[in-house]
Amino acid sequence: xxxxxxxxxxxxxxxxxxxxxxxxxxxxxxxxxxxxxxxxxxxxxxxxxxxxxxxxxxxxxxxxxxxxxxxxxxxxxxxxxxxxxxxxxxxxxxxxxxxxxxxxxxxxxxxxxxxxxxxxxxxxxxxxxxxxxxxxxxxxxxxxxxxxxxxxxxxxxxxxxxxxxxxxxxxxxxxxxxxxxxxxxxxxxxxxxxxxxxxxxxxxxxxxxxxxxxxxxxxxxxxxxxxxxxxxxxxxxxxxxxxxxxxxxxxxxxxxxxxxxxxxxxxxxxxxxxxxxxxxxxxxxxxxxxxxxxxxxxxxxxxxxxxxxxxxxxxxxxxxxxxxxxxxxxxxxxxxxxxxxxxxxxxxxxxxxxxxxxxxxxxxxxxxxxxxxxxxxxxxxxxxxxxxxxxxxxxxxxxxxxxxxxxxxxxxxxxxxxxxxxxxxxxxxxxxxxxxxxxxxxxxxxxxxxxxxxxxxxxxxxxxxxxxxxxxxxxxxxxxxxxxxxxxxxxxxxxxxxxxxxxxxxxxxxxxxxxxxxxxxxxxxxxxxxxxxxxxxxxxxxxxxxxxxxxxxxxxxxxxxxxxxxxxxxxxxxxxxxxxxxxxxxxxxxxxxxxxxxxxxxxxxxxxxxxxxxxxxxxxxxxxxxxxxxxxxxxxxxxxxxxxxxxxxxxxxxxxxxxxxxxxxxxxxxxxxxxxxxxxxxxxxxxxxxxxxxxxxxxxxxxxxxxxxxxxxxxxxxxxxxxxxxxxxxxxxxxxxxxxxxxxxxxxxxxxxxxxxxxxxxxxxxxxxxxxxxxxxxxxxxxxxxxxxxxxxxxxxxxxxxxxxxxxx
Length: 809
Prior knowledge:
8-stranded mixed β-sheet, 28 helices, 31 strands
C-alpha cells in the first residue's frame, strides 16, 4: 500500500482537486490519502481568529470568504444532485460550528491556545470530506488515532499509542482511505491539538511508518527538491535523488518542500519518500531514500535562511571554564528560542549562535541575564546581536569523500568579494553552513551554484564599455560563439552591461546581442563614470568582468574601485597599465589580494601573446635581458607603404582611413603609443619604468604636434620631399625604416632605425608587429613573436582570449 499526501496548493482550486482525483484513481493498490486545508484557508482561519479576539467586527467578512471558498469548491467539483446537497449540508454544519466559535471569541475578546487549535483544525476537516466525496474514499478522523502529549509547552506525538491506534484503525484497509492531515488530539484530555505548520506531511509519514507502506508520496506544487531556490537561480534544476540525511539538512535550512519531521518516521522503516508535482504528474520528481546515487556530485543542493541574527558570547573569562555552553543553550531552551547554527573558536573564548531575527532581542536579554555576573566582572563582553544576516548551507553526503570542498567554497566566495562572518561544519561533512550579510545572499547562492557545477553552465557576467571598432567586433565575436561555448565548454558568456560614450544599459538577465545597439539607443540611460561605477558595483553580481574597449583615461580610473569590489578587469585600454608605476602596481596588487584578474594582453601587439609569454618566462625563473620590438602597426604600415608614388603625408592619411591609426594620427607619430607599450612590457618583465624614462628619437619635428589636427594636415606635406630623398638613399642601400622600441640594461628608447636585409625586422609586412626577447635562456637565439599588431578583429580576439582565461581559472 501507498500513502499519498496532497498539500494546500494541490487542493487550492477546482482544477487542482480534479488532478488529485486523477492521481489517486491511477493507483492500482490500496492507498491512504492525506490532505491539507484548501490553499490559504489556514492563514484565513488564524487571521479571522485574531480579528475576532480584538473585537474587530469585520472578522465576519473574513469568515464569509471562508464559507464562500468551500461552498463554491463543492459546486465546481461535485456534480449537482443528492451527493452535492448532502455534502453541502455536512460542510454547512461544520461552518456553523466554526461561526459560533468565532462569535464567542468576539464577545469575550479572548483567544486561548486550546480554542485556536480547534479553529485551525476545521481547515483539514472541511477539505478532507470534500476530497473524500470526490474520490469515493472512506473518510477516517485522524483525531481518533493521532495522539499527542504536552512536553515543554509543545504538543508532541505519543509514538507508541499512535502507532497502535493507526494499526487498529486500518486493520481492514479499504481501496482508498481519506485522512485529514495536521490535526490530532491530546491523549489525556481529548482536546484538539495539531502537529504544527507542515503537519499534514508529518501525519502522512506517521501513518506510512506505522503501516509499513511501500512508499510515501508528497504531492505539492513543485517538481521536487531543487538544487537551489529557482526564484534566485534560474538555472536551478530538480534533484532526482537524495538521502534521508541530505533531505533533512536541506529542509532544516529553508527548503520548504517537506516539513522536516516528516523524514524521521519513514527513515527508520526505510520507506522511500517521493516528491511529486500535482500540476506536472509526469515529472520525474525527487526520490528520498536511505542511500542516494553514490556517483552523484559532491554537493546535492544549496539552501538558505534569509532571516538570521548572529549572537556571540565572548570573553577571556570563558577559556577553560566548563559549562558555559550548557548555560547558553539551557537559557535559550527555557525561553523557547531555537538555535540553527553554532560556531565556536577552538580557544573557547567565543561561541556564535544563529537564531531567527524575531528571536534575537529576547536571546540577548536572556543571555545577558544568565551571564550578568561575568559581564559585570569583565570576564564576558555584553551580548549583542548582529542582525539582517543570511545563512547558507551546502549539502551533500559525497562531500566527505571529496577533499578540498571547503577550500574551494571559501575561495570562490572570497574571489567574489563575499565575506563569511561565521561558519560551521559537522564531522559528518554532510553540511557546510556559513553566515553572510543578507545583501550578499543572492550573489553567494549564484556563485556556489555556478562554481560547483550545479548549474548546467559556468557563467561569466560581462560589462562591456566601448562598442566602437574593437568593442563592436568583440560583441559580435561573443554573439557568434555563445552557443558553441555553452555546448562544448559549458560556459555561458552573459553580457549584463553595455555602454558607449553617450548611453549605458544594465540588466541582470542579460541582453539580446542581435539588436543591442538599437536597445542601447532607445532604452539606455546617460553614460557617466559615476553611472558605470555605481551600477556595476550596485548590481553586486557574481563572476563579473568589466571589459574596457575604450581609450578613455576616465574609464581607466574606474579600475581600482571595480577591482576592490571583486570585479575582474580586462582592458584593451593601455592608459592604466602605462600610468604612474605606483598606480600600475597597486592595481595588480589589489587584483591579487582580492582573488580577481586584471588582464591587458591586447595593450601590446593586439592579439599576439606577448605579455602572457613574458609572464610565463618570468614565472618559470627566466630573466628578460633585452627587448627589441616594432610595436606600432600604424608606423610599420606607414613605412612599408612609403614609395616614390606614395609620399609620407599620404601614407599617414591611408593609415587613418584604414583605421590602423588613432583618429588623431599624431598620437602614433609622436611615439607616445609605442612608449606606453614599451613601458608596459618593461614592467611585466620586472623593471620599474616610467614613460618619462624612455628616450625619444622622433622623425617628425616637435612643432607639428602643436595646434589643431587641421593645422597638422596642412603642414605635414612639407615633410614629403625630405622623406623621399632619404628613402631613395635607403632603397639604394637595400634597407628599410622601422620604428623600434628597445629595452636593454634597464634603459629604454624608441626611434626610427634603418635595418638591413639580414635583420629580423627587415621583412616585416603591412601593420605587423615583431618582438625579440633576449633572456638568460634565450640568449644566443632570441625568442621571436610576430603577427598582426593592429586591427579591430585581432584586438577583439585578444580581449576575448583574456575573458576566456578568467573563465578557465
